[in-house]
Amino acid sequence: MLPQPGLGFTLLTFIVMIAVLVVVHEGGHYLAGRFFGVNIDSFAVGFGKELFGFDDRRGTRWKLNLIPLGGYVKFTGDMNEASQIDPAVLLLPEAERRSLFVFKPLWQRAFIVAAGPVVNFLFAIAILASFYVALGHPFTPPVVAGVTADGPAAAAGIRPGDRIVSIDGDAIERFEDIVNIVMSGTGEAMQIVIDRDGARLSLRVTPARVETVDRFGNVVKHGRLGVSRSGRIVEDVSLFPAIGYGIKDTGEIIVTIATTLKQVVLAERSLADLGGPIKTGQVTGQQASLGILPFIAFMAFFSINLGFINLLPIPMLDGGHLLLYAVETVRRRPVGAKTQEWAFMSGFAALMTFMAVLTWNDLGSVGVWDRLTGWLG
After folding, report:
1. What's the average pLDDT block by block, 10 residues per block, for the chain (377 residues)?
2. Based on the domain organization, do 172 and 84 belong to the same domain?
3. Which of 120, 139, 328, 332 has the CB geometry, 3.0–4.6 Å to 307, for a possible disulfide?
4. Class of residue 13 by CB neighbours under 10 A (exposed 0-12, middle 13-18, buried 19+)
5. DSSP 252-274
6. 61 by DSSP, 3-state: which?
7. 207, 275: one domain
8. Residue 341 lies in a domain
9. Same structural domain for residues 143 and 18?
């Protein structure tokens, strides 16, 4: 078992990752805003008091703030970092309105808002594609090399040499697809189609739910089918196929995140299975301790998570803004200021509650509550 990285190292690597991804995400908003000629007051990394910064020739303030967990682009006419409209701009003459975000056509505002999450996805695709070009694309044929005795696969009749064709209707192209589907499942029975000597068989398999300990001692709960893979193939790929693989992998990760969230909402999976900021920081430090490549790979994964979360239809997030724009499209006029204020307040409360619950779970997962109980006992 590998030793846990130190607290200082973990905090440093977590802050570095967050800072990079904030610049990526907010950079998407910034570039899209500039493209459409929107005036921008500031581009900030972090929240709270400004530590240092500078003004560029366009009048935008670039600054680093005290709390390095997040960031924002503040368009001229925004009342705050949440992009709520300053009522005073509604009284401006027509000539001064043209460069303000709030007066841009609806489709341009939607494009600017969506640009942040989209750039998160593009950033991850670029990282994955670079890995594949430099290191090759790992691929394992979806052929069963071995079957665990008394395991779910053996009980269902799967044998060595069987080629898994699909799981619950999803086509299987490589063994890695099997791992992703089974490990992210909740233990529900799966319909697995196999190819055995040219004949197609449909088998119903219920994966076992197991707990395993990773190299850092973290306990991970996941599904297990009870089959082993054959040797992995690493194929050399050029740029465009590598980009295609990066897009495919990013799409699969998005589907996995969405599936996990749906399972939590439907109570098929415990909320404790989701990691909050403390758990994310811990994993960041662990991956960084393995080397620069695992750290960058985890950054790509977290960038996808950040993009997905920001597209959720919750006020305060980009998806919440897009939801209000959708309502505006249907109503043919903007949502009222009071409604927007209520929406942002409720969205903020929901996000803070969710983060508080995840942080509580994180503290439990790293043993804080057990130690506190021991001290008090």
Report:
1. 85 93 95 94 91 92 88 80 64 75 90 96 97 92 90 91 92 88 83 92 90 76 86 90 95 89 79 78 91 94 93 87 88 73 70 69 56 49
2. no
3. 120
4. buried
5. HHHHHHHHHHHHHHTTSS-GGGS
6. strand
7. yes
8. no
9. no
Summarize pLDDT for 210-228 with one digit per residue, the tens.
878 777 777 777 888 999 9
377 domain residue, yes or no: no
For the beta carbon of residue 321, count every other beta carbon within 10 angstroms: 23
Q: Does residue 187 share a domain with residue 106? A: no
Considering the domain architecture, whether residues 107 and 145 belong to the same structural domain is answered as no
41: which residues sit within 8 A by CB, 6+ positions away? 59, 60, 61, 74, 75, 76, 78
By annotation, the residues acting in catalysis are: 26
Distance between CA atoms of residues 198 and 312, nearest Å = 44
CB 210 within 8 A of CB 221: yes
Separation between Cα atoms, residue 23 and residue 18, nearest integer Å: 9
What is the extent of the structural domain holding 34? 7-135+292-333
Q: What is the pLDDT of residues 233-245, one digit of tens each?
A: 889 999 999 999 9
DSSP string, 291-352: -HHHHHHHHHHHHHHHHHHHTSS-TTSHHHHHHHHHHHHHHTSPPPHHHHHHHHHHHHHHHH
CATH of the domain at 197: 2.30.42.10
Same structural domain for residues 149 and 92? no
Give the span between the Cα atoms of 206 and 186, in whole angstroms: 10
Residues in contact with 205: Cβ distance below 8 Å, sequence separation at least 6, in sequence order: 152, 153, 155, 156, 158, 189, 190, 192, 225
